Amino acid sequence: MHVLVRRLLILPFVIAPWGVAMSQAVSQSDAVVVSPDRFRVLLDNEHVRVLEYTLRPGERDQWHTHPAKVSYVVDGGELRIHLADGTSFLSSEPKGTAEWREALPRHFAENVGKTPVRIVLVEVKVIVGTLSGRGKRSR
Q: Residues 6 or more apart from 77 whose CB is under 8 A from it?
């Protein structure tokens, strides 16, 4: 049997385990999978996934990531975002604001305020064309 044919025949057996590992890694960093009590899927299609996120005072979610997204703060408050490199930052979430956010690496959020925080996230799956108004907040 030709060497190339043999390599092509074994390729699925080499790629399949890697695909399973990648799928498991993605699901282990998916916010809905790791924190289903905090994230609720409102819509999921080929373009976007819309999530409702709720975090009460003193609560935290689990380690996860997000793709690029729009966030709309339904009920505001103060969150501390903890990053995988050991750093953290405060994130003030004023009620009624909308914001474009680039993909966020592995992190978890902790509600350090006195009010429940509720945010609607629109995670973008496909970006076509040019985005305008990046990072601007509106009221």
A: 57, 93, 111, 113, 114, 115, 116, 117
| SS3 letters across the chain | CCHHHHHHHHHHHHHHHHHHHHHHHHHHHEHHHHCCCCEEEEEECCCEEEEEEEECCCCECCCEEECCEEEEEEECEEEEEEECCCCEEEEEECCCCEEEECCEEEEEEEECCCCCEEEEEEEECCCCCCCCCCCCCEC
C-alpha span between 32 and 51 (Å, rounded):
8
SS3 37: coil
Q: Report residue 85's pLDDT band, with 50, 70 and 90 as the boundaries.
A: very high
Domains identified in the chain and CATH numbers: 28-124 (2.60.120.10)
Cα 88 from Cα 91, distance rounded (Å): 10
The pTM of the full predicted model, rounded to 2 decimals, is 0.72
Mean per-residue pLDDT of the chain: 82
Q: Report how far residue 120's alpha carbon sits from residue 139's, in angstroms, rounded to the nearest whole number.
A: 15
